[in-house]
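Section: protein folds

Sequence with per-residue tokens
===
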Amino acid sequence: MEWYNKNFKQIEEELQTEIKEGLTTEKVEQAREKYGKNILQQEQRKSLMAKVKDQLFDPMIIILMIAAILSAIIGSAVDAIVIIAIVFVNGALSIYQEGKAEEALEALKKMASPQATVRRNGQTLELDSEDIVPGDVVLLETGDIVPADLRLVQSSNLKIDESSLTGESVPVEKNAEMIYDDVVEIGDRENMAYSSTIVTYGRGTGICVTTGHDTEIGNIAESIQGVEEEMTPLQRKLAQLSKTLGILVVIICALVFAVGFFIYKNEPLEMFMTAISLAVAAIPEGLPAIVTIVLSLGMKTMAEKNAIVKKLLAVETLGTTTVICSDKTGTLTQNEMTVQKIYADDLVVDVTGNGYTPEGQFLLNGKDLQVDEMPSLYTLLNIATLTNDAKLQREEGEYKIIGDPTEGALITLGAKLKITTEIANNHYPRIDEIPFDSDRKMMTTFHENFIENKITSFTKGAPDIILDRCHKILKDGKIHELTSKDREKILSKNSEFSLDSLRVLAYGFKIFDTKPENLMDGEEGMIFVGLTGMMDPARPEAKVAIEECRSAGIRPIMITGDYLQTAYAIGKTLGICTSEDEVILGKELNDKSEEEIRKIVEEKNVYARVSPQNKVQIVTALKENGHIAAMTGDGVNDAPAIKKADIGISMGITGTDVAKNTSDLILTDDNFSTIVNAVEEGRIIYANIKKFVSFLLSCNLGEILIVFIAILVDLPAPFIPIQLLWLNLVTDSFPALALGVEKGDPEIMAEKPRDPNEPIIDKDMRLSIALQSIAIAICTLGAFIYGLNHFDQHIESARTVAFATLITAELLRSYSVRSSTHSVFQLGLFSNRKLVMGTSFSFFLMLLVIYIPGVNDVFQTIPLHLEHWFVIIPAAFLPFIVGEATKYFYNQYKMSRK
């Protein structure tokens, strides 16, 4: 049996406590020894050494370290130092991103109530919430943060805001007397109060049943810790690329050594050094650092667009997103109850405006309505404002409510017509009241001067109960008998509002000569005034963003703790669902197998009354079905699913610290449409990563072919290891970085999300890389052979010509790789200014290596003359021409196939 299934006596016996007296000091000590303090235990933090170890075991880093060791063995200390420096910089840029789970738990701790009121040894005292133990009798009042999970034993008009835990946007009415026989979802347990939720109305008493990690919020903390970090799609693809390159390096090096040693009888040391040259040529040493830097630049760009990316590789993951699972309250909606419709004088008035900002219009048949045109409206707004204990405040330009959100919506409604609580209460002072309770479902206040020399009672509450207690009706400012036809109209309108998922309240009043001795007389024989319908409205920009998601091939899913009808209404308004067949209750997932849930998530787009565990089930099933799932949210209840998702997104303004610290991406403007902008940026970044991977690999493969073919035909090695290292780390890196910030294709958001299993080197890239590397090998080998037979037939002269030809060819190659569909001349030769600067700088560095005395001794190059450049320049243009021609003819071929 769960705590909500048990009666008071069972709980007292099980926890050895008494409701009237509380725990004794002895029992407190026993409980503390058994259960510990009421705090969330944090799992051991990962040490710095463990983080460094994780970095060093990255496949690409392992290959670089092997290259560094081999370089050191053969005496190339400069090569080894440069490679190790690259590894160090890359690791340092990545390590600080870790540790989000620990931060999330710190935020959970901050949410705990610092003080709590308890009853011990028959006395009431205040103590730190961490000192509460199971069995403690806890007293709750309006404004308190619940310090632990409690089984309520007494409640008086008690309402608790559980939105951060369940997603329910309206405070939940509590009833301590309720006992359940069956399993009940967390949001429907009226006899329970949960740790870190907030008392918004009334008072109550509860027995502490669980503390620390055993509470519902503690379960969330454990689930955050329990979710293992998974590799992002880009990490998986780069790891596969590293593995492939590693195998390729071993095979080619072994083959070259065998050919040189066994066939051409070359010296073993000479062939070993040549094999090392090939290994250096094969490995794109600059790739990890360039990927890290480009992703960092992407983070900066996204931050400028109101999306703070906390995890580096999440930048790219955004571009692969196929499903966005969004929390409703505060994400798709404003988390601010708003009155949208009024029914009075047999007319329906539409109210505009959003949230608690007291601005908006009252529209009748689409036209602006003045108060004097509808006298009953003035009375209704005064009742809504006067039967109210909430306060509307403006802080730093934002309007906020202190008190119950429903009453906040009513205060805002009155303020839209300048009927504020201050003005109304000054004109019509409150002299007495009957507070709201869940049995009567009404609240009544008594006021002077609303009608001269009279006392007027104003009542708001549930429509059916108010209507049953009314005998008359206010129409056009005059009092009439309430006929059966009037009742039918009112009930019909109430039903209509409810079907639109509006929360409906009714209003009535009664006139007295003097204040009645029995206040309850104010709730009998009333005059009916009208109805209001309110809801937590959808964000205006969310619908546009959802349409953009769909056009980008991304499926939006809404997950909420609200009731099914409310969820369906918001989902339909936003375009997430079209029929109730696409809506399901969270509890329907509880008894389903993993296979059944995987099928459900492909059919349902709206999930209502969902628990934190359900959210994780949904995200897990989507991932198992091959989706790249993003999860957005702002509450504590969203945190486990945010962490489980491929990309976790939280709200920066309304989001709890827990959600923000668990997420990969924070929206600083709480705008759902910012996600779409972030997805677009993610797609652009991935496309750019593919461009510079294509560029680097075509250059590296070209270098392999040059060295490999030279060995096969018994030519001297065209390059020494340090020359190839210079090419890979310095010459190629600047153009690759510039390609990483290339502007996106205008049609990039019209494309479907790419297959997450698609390799980073797709079919088109393989063709491009193959043709380009062959062209680079031909032009460089041709220049090398020409240099061997001309230019004084000196090996250093030929190597320098080959070195300059290869660098120039690779720099020109960077221009043709900018787009797979458009010619560089269509894009604009100088439209990517960073690429122009990068290639110019790389070319300038090459000239330094060739012409500066001392430096050229290290690189074994010689100063080139004009006659050399007449060979180098034409040869270097060959790959560029091949690239542009291949692009043109291949695109023509694809168009003809369509």
Confidence is low (pLDDT under 50) at residues 96-102, 107-113.
